[in-house]
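Q: I'm writing up a methods section and want to include an example of the input and output format. Could you take the sequence below and give the corresponding predicted structure tokens, formatted cleanly so I can copy it straight into the document?
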Amino acid sequence: MAHYKASDLKREQFWMYLEKLGVLDTLTKVSITSYEEPEKPPSVLDFLKHHLGAVTPENAEIELLCLQLAEMKEKYEATIEENLKKPESKAYSV
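A: Here is the clean output for your methods example:
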């Protein structure tokens, strides 16, 4: 019997923790949004991820970002090489 009470106490503490952090409120709002959708989403999990901000970018977007990153790295390295080849400007002594 004591085991059940300890388990209930832990569960209650966990729920209070979730409530304190606003998790329950956020999940409730997203659930209501899902309920109010005229067309129910085919994947409730994807719907929740999207509305909770856990959406990952599409593969095409990832590929584009990788290409942009590679281009920037090349430009950076070219600039570094160019700066190394330039003779240092010497201060004029009076």
